[in-house]
Amino acid sequence: MSQSAKLELISFKVCPFVQRSVIALNAKRVTYTLTHINPHEPPDWFKAISPLGKVPVLLVDGTPLFESAVILEYLDEVYPPALHPATPLERAQHRAWIEFCSELLGRQFRMLTAKDETGFNEARDALQQGLQRLDTMLSPELPYFAGQAFHLVDCVYAPLFMRLILLKQEYGLELPLSKRMQAWSDALLALDAVKTSVVDDFSTVFANFLAANDGYIIKR
Ligand SMILES: N[C@@H](CCC(=O)N[C@@H](CS)C(=O)NCC(=O)O)C(=O)O
């Protein structure tokens, strides 16, 4: 496939896995269209192209790609600038920490949807522990994961931080971040590629998502 392929990303407005794909597309200044579908009533055409019924799906001249990590790899192979490090070992490390981010997003999701205090506390503590582990991997050089250069691994953590900030501002839920990690989060959330990676009314969309789940987090 060439750089001139028509790209259509299928999305749920609140999905952090879609958002990481959007951030990579934005960072690479690639032209694409975004199609939001209703997660509660996915259309038949979506079920036909998404084997797991999940977003994101990237249509490349009509050919569906699923799994956000795979979509990121595809985008990085086709569209410059390369956002993976140059050496195989560093690339492998970044892939591993991208995988780790997906686990943390799962913990964050469990925290947001937990129905009772016990489930909420367990998920919050697991997320906090994961963040502490991640912290040990950050380059001493500011501001991104590996220092001055922005990589795919940065694309995937920005949605996690965006939700942590909203949880702090709107719901008084604070997960303490180290100074180094706070600087990373601040740098990511200041990027245009990140700011424009969600719908304008994202805080409302996020609040509606939490309300619909009716979890412990909105009752504390
Ligand atoms: N491993 C997948 C996870 C994607 C995912 O969990 N998407 C959620 C929305 S954030 C979804 O589509 N859920 C619908 C479902 O599970 O039915 C990826 O990285 O693309």
TrEMBL record:
Native organism taxonomy: Bacteria, Pseudomonadati, Pseudomonadota, Gammaproteobacteria, Thiotrichales
Chain ranges of the GST C-terminal domain: 87-209
One Pfam family per UniProt: GST_N_2
UniProt KW keywords: Transferase
A GO cellular component annotation in the UniProt record: cytoplasm
Species of the source: Thiothrix caldifontis
GST N-terminal domain: residues covered: 5-83
Family matches, as CDD domains: GST_C_family (cd00299), GST_N_family (cd00570)
A GO term, aspect molecular function: transferase activity
UniProt-listed PROSITE patterns: GST_CTER, GST_NTER
The protein's name: Glutathione S-transferase
Gene3D superfamilies: 1.20.1050.10, Glutaredoxin (3.40.30.10)
